[in-house]
Amino acid sequence: MAEIRLDNIRKSFGAFEVIKGVSMDIRRGEFMVFVGPSGCGKSTLLRLISGLEDITSGTLSFDDKVVNQRAPSKRGIAMVFQSYALYPHMTVFDNMAFGMKLSGRTKDECRQRVEQAAGMLQLSPYLDRLPRQLSGGQRQRVAIGRAIVRDPKVFLFDEPLSNLDAALRVATRLEIAKLHRSMHNTTMIYVTHDQVEAMTLADRICVLRDGVVEQVGTPLELYETPNSLFVAGFIGSPK
Ligand code: ADP
Ligand code: MG
């Protein structure tokens, strides 16, 4: 069964239509990657799923319930931004605990969850540091940890590796894959314009072009049977 269903979703900013009738399903536990050129609407689509932007028309449902009007905080979703979205004046611990404190958990619960996430992400030695005292890769892991402690059903990643250097990109990519394997039934929706990331991380890939879905399929399906030159150019070899 689909956990998340997009049914003819459209989004306009003023007279400018950015998402032009997107329909697709995302299954529970799936690693779904959205790819497509800059400006095609990837970030907008994530923001619609998370509720940070309102849908202009169409239906978004989670577990067969329409959530078009549901507040972002009630959607069971955590979004991982690029690492520069950390609070510079807060320690790693406080950066990770911040969202949880707002949710009304006890101090002990917060500490326990932060310590567990830090352990998963090899951040335990750095909990008292400030973001500027960390490497780029460590900072990105803090950004991921901040999402993990909230125990979301769905993670949304918007190009989380794009400001890391090549070696760190590979290491952090492996970390994200490991995280998905270790968090059973956690759905990940991941936006990138990097085909290697898409091919290595995805259970399925959705290729977007100019606000429209070109093709959805497993990496192998898209590689072996792209249904357009556009998909082929993005993913695999031309037919
Ligand atoms: P991507 O993430 O694929 O690069 P975006 O979703 O960020 O693309 O943007 C898609 C298009 O929508 C772009 O042309 C962008 O300029 C436009 N856009 C995005 N957000 C807004 C906004 N808040 N107001 C007006 N236009 C926007
Ligand atoms: Mg974007």
UniProtKB/TrEMBL annotation:
<feature type="domain" description="ABC transporter">
    <location>
        <begin position="4"/>
        <end position="235"/>
    </location>
</feature>
<keyword id="KW-0547">Nucleotide-binding</keyword>
<dbReference type="GO" id="GO:0005524">
    <property type="term" value="F:ATP binding"/>
</dbReference>
<keyword id="KW-0472">Membrane</keyword>
<dbReference type="GO" id="GO:0016887">
    <property type="term" value="F:ATP hydrolysis activity"/>
</dbReference>
<dbReference type="GO" id="GO:0015423">
    <property type="term" value="F:ABC-type maltose transporter activity"/>
</dbReference>
<keyword id="KW-0614">Plasmid</keyword>
<protein>
    <submittedName>
        <fullName>ABC transporter ATP-binding protein</fullName>
    </submittedName>
</protein>
<dbReference type="GO" id="GO:0055052">
    <property type="term" value="C:ATP-binding cassette (ABC) transporter complex, substrate-binding subunit-containing"/>
</dbReference>
<comment type="similarity">
    <text>Belongs to the ABC transporter superfamily.</text>
</comment>
<keyword id="KW-0997">Cell inner membrane</keyword>
<keyword id="KW-0067">ATP-binding</keyword>
<dbReference type="GO" id="GO:1990060">
    <property type="term" value="C:maltose transport complex"/>
</dbReference>
<keyword id="KW-1003">Cell membrane</keyword>
<keyword id="KW-0813">Transport</keyword>
